[in-house]
Write a structure and sequence with these properties.
With 487 residues, the chain is α/β, with parallel strands linked by helices. 46% of the residues lie in helices and 13% in strands. The strands form four sheets. A six-stranded parallel beta sheet has the order 5-2-1-6-7-8, with helices on both faces. A three-stranded mixed beta sheet has the order 4-3-10.
């Protein structure tokens, strides 16, 4: 029957009435947490008997945990993407969250979490700016706006309630996208302990009885499908205001402390969750291949008229350019297992081809120079050091970036979105008519690269040659002429 009124998603309707012990408190119940961490815990419960319930703590005063509470903390997760060339399109109701708390309206309920006997883990995703010290939070009495301040109070209340028991410390696993996220969080907790004049014994308990795990997380979670909500609603026989869409790919790398594997059976589920001694190689892999892949094809793709990542990788020229650059010029500089790098790169290309996600090149162009410096330049420099010659594809990508910052191509205005000083400096550089001079000025600009790239033998003339080809031919012809010239 058309326009039938659907019942709101609830546990009785879904048959998810099991009561799970509270083992996890999470700060941040947004799209990423629900499409990533909560999904992982749900899967561990279903497939590995983990038997862990989550309490979701609202991180900001303007949050929406009440919407989750209204549907018994259930929501539908749609996972959509490509794996090894096959389209994956699944949905499932995630039931790991047992309760959601707004500490701004129910502060005592938040503090009571400290007394949970089986509480063992803290997960968080409060954006990259969430793990920060705010000196204005100078009073122990809450509620606090700052996430580390909230966590410090929760840990201190637990310390007091259990009289500093060694076995009541927690494992803190933050998912914010900053390097050494757990160590940074620990440092801030100790700062608050000092600011609030908490007991020395508490600081010792934090140091000795709580474990802080640095992480690397990777999954695209667009969230609520507001642009296409009706097609998702048509797949459900209930109302769900908190549905979430994610890609199928998931990577969770966690730095091991005190044998985490014994506490969470990550190896019992079929997901890419790695508990390792050192996460740096995995961060390097992600930055150079995933983020680097986006960045190195950006200018060639935009100058070829491609608007999205999928459109770019599906294009014969751009797709082959990306593939050859990653496998021949980026991977060999990383010093990691060749097969692991190959598998990771192929997964990345599958993600780029995801038909369910529109990732616009223009959005990747934000702070393009800075991204190139961090993601691509180390591969270019590493290749030169190893091979004593230029990586031609990375050189062409660099030349394309310089051409991109001229601001227009043919009749098209290019999406420059960078610091004003960078855009203005490129305007000055492009007042020169000789490509050799443009290349020399752009490559020697240490405010762009933190180094003088004209010192790399042959790079200036190679970039000048590529710029000339780009201005006189279509991008594919320009590239092939450039490669042929140096072959």
């Amino acid at each position: 029957m058309e326009n039938q009124i659907k019942q709101k998603l609830n546990r009785e309707l879904n048959g998810s009435q099991e009561k799970l012990p509270i083992k996890i408190v999470q700060f941040g119940g947004g799209n990423f947490m629900r499409g990533f961490t909560d999904y992982v815990i749900y899967k561990l419960n279903k497939e590995a008997g983990f038997n862990a319930g989550i309490v979701n703590v609202q991180p900001t005063a303007g949050g929406s945990v009440h919407k989750l509470e209204e549907q018994d903390n259930l929501y539908t997760l749609f996972s959509r993407g490509i794996k090894k060339g096959e389209i994956i399109d699944t949905k499932q109701v995630i039931s790991a969250i047992q309760k959601s708390i707004n500490p701004y309206t129910n502060y005592d309920e938040f503090l009571a979490l400290a007394k949970e006997e089986e509480l063992e883990f803290i997960f968080s995703n409060t954006t990259e700016t969430g793990i920060a010290y705010d000196q204005s939070e100078n009073d122990y009495t809450g509620p606090h706006k700052n996430f580390p301040a909230k966590l410090t109070v929760l840990l201190h209340e637990r310390f007091k309630h259990f009289n500093g028991a060694k076995d009541k410390g927690l494992r803190i696993i933050p998912c914010e996208l900053i390097e050494d996220n757990a160590f940074t969080l620990k440092k801030i907790i100790l700062q608050y302990a000092q600011l609030w004049n908490l007991e020395d014994d508490f600081a010792q308990w934090i140091e000795q009885c709580n474990y802080f795990h640095n992480t690397l997380v990777d999954r695209i979670v667009p969230g609520y499908p507001k642009d296409d909500v009706e097609s998702y609603e048509d797949q459900l026989d209930y109302e769900d205001q908190m549905m979430v869409v994610s890609e199928t790919f998931l990577l969770f790398v966690i730095q091991d402390v005190a044998n985490l594997k014994e506490r969470i059976p990550f190896d019992k589920i079929n997901e890419q969750i790695l508990v390792v001694d050192d996460i740096k190689p995995y961060r390097l892999r992600k930055v150079r291949i995933l983020n680097g892949g986006h960045t190195l094809m950006l200018a060639p793709a935009i100058l070829s008229g491609k608007e999205t990542v999928k459109e770019s990788i599906d294009d014969q020229f751009i797709g082959q350019f990306l593939n050859e650059t990653i496998f021949n010029e980026v991977n060999p500089t990383l010093g990691l297992d060749e097969n692991e790098l190959k598998d990771f790169a192929e997964e990345v290309f599958d993600r780029f081809r995801n038909p369910f996600i529109k990732h616009y090149q223009a959005s990747i162009a934000l702070y393009f120079v800075s991204k190139f410096k961090v993601r691509i330049l180390p591969s270019l420099l590493g290749y030169v050091e190893i091979n004593k010659k230029l990586p031609l594809n990375l050189t062409f990508s660099l030349a394309s970036l310089i051409r991109f910052y001229q601001g227009s191509f043919g009749e098209k205005t290019l999406p420059l979105n960078d610091e004003e000083s960078i855009i203005n400096r490129f305007k000055e550089i492009w007042k020169n008519e000789e490509y050799e001079k443009v290349a020399e000025l752009a490559l020697s600009e240490t405010t762009f690269w933190d180094t003088d790239l004209t010192e790399i033998d042959g790079l200036t003339s190679a970039v000048a040659k590529a710029l000339s080809e780009i201005d006189h031919h279509d991008m594919e012809t320009a590239y092939h002429n450039f490669i042929q010239f140096y072959s």
